[in-house]
Amino acid sequence: MLSNQAADPAKRKSLHGHWSSRMAFILAVTGSAVGLGNIWRFPYIVGENGGGAFVLVYLACVVVIGMPVMMSEILMGRRGRRNPIATMELLGAEEGKSPNWKVVGAMGVLAGVLILSYYAVVGGWTLSYVLKSGSGQFANATPEIVTSLRDKFLGSWSTVALYHTIFMGLTIFVVARGVERGLEQAVRFMVPALLLLMVVLLGYSIASGHFGEGVAFLFKPDWSKLTWDMVLTAMGQAFFTLSIGMGAVMAYGAYLPEETSIPGSATAVAISDTSIALLAGLVIFPLVFANGMDPGDGPGLVFVTLPLAFGQMPGGVFFATLFFVLLTFAAWTSAISLMEPAVAWIVERFNKTRAQAAVAIGLLIWALGFGTVLSFNVLSDFTFWRGTIFDNLDHLTLNIMLPLGGLLIVVFAGWVMCRNSTADELGGSGAVYKLWRFLARVVAPIGILFVFLKAVGLLPEFS
Fold this sequence. Notes:
Layout: H1 4-7, H2 22-33, H3 36-48, H4 52-80, H5 84-94, H6 102-134, H7 143-155, H8 157-176, H9 179-206, H10 211-219, H11 228-241, H12 248-253, H13 262-290, H14 300-311, H15 316-350, H16 354-368, H17 370-375, H18 389-416, H19 419-426, H20 431-455
């Protein structure tokens, strides 16, 4: 039997406090969504898939798949006012369904922990590149020197572990301080700083003399490049870049004031997140073309190609340092959100303080991260299933756990929750609500299911 407070959604209060304003929530979720996926992954994925045609398909996927899933997570989080596990259990009971829906919340929390275990290692990598850039190690460097610096860094497990430790320490510090004193203060500084750094680097990119070429590559569609595989890749990128399916958005939604519009907030987050991804492309591609490099260079585009490009340019040391500070901020804001759902669960489930929960979860993630640390050196020859420990964690979380979690979340919001519950959170039953309901019940589940089946090899190759 639910308590009166639990039975009446209007009386539920988060144990962790609330965002002080709608803008604070938008900055927090934007910070969660904007990460290495926008600034590192998006440009090279665009490069590998031919440019403009991919970008247009990606933007369509953000609207018809990403937005309804994000709105679903926020409304469920605000209605439950608990950590994702407790929220799913509570809402399942409220709708007269099985409390076992809490497994979906648990999968999201676990996915966040596993992702952060390797994300923090890559975050430490970006932190080390701030120091490499600032000390001028990339100035006038040849491709061999840049590659050697990267390989030397990754080859030393103790150095990689050191930066992983520093990055996790920074993340634990912010999360331990709570919603308003920690999460909100951090994103109020870091997200505007990130945008400012992007604008400064955009000016530098415009001055490269190849800005028009970069714009054409990014926005002029070549429809001959359009394939079903490319469409599915765009769906996956839209899904992952919005930080959905891992409990972070649901946890942040639990702290959202009752009077704040969910459709308006989700729209602002999607626009901000997508704009930063496009800005990253506008910064990176002109520099790539200015140096006669291949925009489809893959994951090495940021950690090899760009240091080389900056190293050959006037003022390159300063701007390379700015770029990697930007990348570190983006990784940091995402890491904070990945850790929050597990910390909220510990606080609520075991009645611990936020500081105790943050340290406990942080140490667990830090220890798990050594699997990724060693994947680049000592255990690089230890492979199974999809490759190294890092490769397996990446595939398990991004290609299986997140799509499956996102699919179940949107199915729960669209099919399990009654109209009154969802309409109450989304501000009525007008045109916006009807559009969300159609996308959440039909379009988004089908799209996510395609991504999931493709990821697990159950779809044939398309052409």
